[in-house]
Amino acid sequence: EVTEKLEEVVMIWTKQIRQVLVESEQIRREAGDVGPAAELEHWKSRMSSFNSLLDEIRSSRVKKIISILQAARSKTLQQWKKLDSSITIAANEAKDNVRYLYTLDKFFGPLAHASPVMMEHIPSLMNTVCMIYCTSPYYNTSEHMTSLFLKITNQMINTCKTYLCEG
């Protein structure tokens, strides 16, 4: 009877965790003119969410329940282990992406506040983006790179618009 109740609890957690994973994989809706800082903020938020979830999954309360179900040889643990692995991967991806995107952070200010003659920042920025593409185990997909380049371009356009309107 205790095992059944604990299995019900784990099934509820499983459903909630699956929902978090599904939501994290959905396409983001962003304004058409957001800059590259939005990319960093997105991954920081995602990292925070997944780290909180990992902290909860690894809490002593959850560990006790899982160990009781292991002793009872519960079949619900197969799903639980897969989800635990998926959450760990998602958390590692977010952490890694934040780490790499922080290397671009030093360019975001100059890109946003420079005059349209921002050419001195572009080679270093592109070298850093290339480094991310070549070394990041998670961020080096065409989807991520396209999104990043779009945001960098948006920022350059916004900077030029601001310069023209103020000048």
TrEMBL record:
Coiled coil: none annotated. One of its GO terms (molecular function) is dynein light intermediate chain binding. Pfam families: DHC_N1. GO terms for biological process: microtubule-based movement. It comes from the Eukaryota. InterPro entries: DHC, Dynein_heavy_tail. Residues 4-165 form the Dynein heavy chain tail domain. One of its GO terms (cellular component) is axonemal dynein complex. This is DYH5 protein. The lineage of its organism: Eukaryota, Metazoa, Chordata, Craniata, Vertebrata. The gene is Dnah5_3.
